[in-house]
Specification:
Layout: H1 2-11, H2 17-22, H3 24-42, H4 46-51, H5 57-69, H6 76-99
Length: about 100
């Protein structure tokens, strides 16, 4: 998950929101990456979920489901906000979780 979190952030590195909204390739790459993060999070066993409640397990899975199944209803603005607001925080949380093991 940490690898994909970093990868998705690199996809948009240096981009403005306007540039992202015009770049369908980057949007597709980011959406795929968020789906992968959500899928990985769904496969994590209960023990780490309980041990690291700060990781937004449920939200990652929910985002994955919306992106993977609601093709026509994807809110690309929400995708952008997720990448620039939530992923940096997720990266920090995952790093802390890994350090504590």
């Amino acid at each position: 998950m940490l690898e994909w979190t970093r990868k998705v952030q690199r996809f948009v590195g240096g981009m403005t929101e306007d540039a992202f909204l015009l770049d369908e390739k980057t949007q597709s790459a980011v959406i795929h990456g968020l789906i992968v993060i959500g899928e990985i999070s769904a496969r994590v066993s209960d023990e780490p979920r309980v041990a690291f409640p700060a990781v937004p397990w449920h939200e990652m899975r929910g985002m994955r489901n919306r992106l993977a199944h609601d093709y026509l209803g994807i809110d690309i603005d929400e995708v952008w906000r997720t990448v620039v607001s939530d992923l940096p925080m997720l990266e920090r949380t995952l790093k802390l979780a890994l350090k504590s093991q």
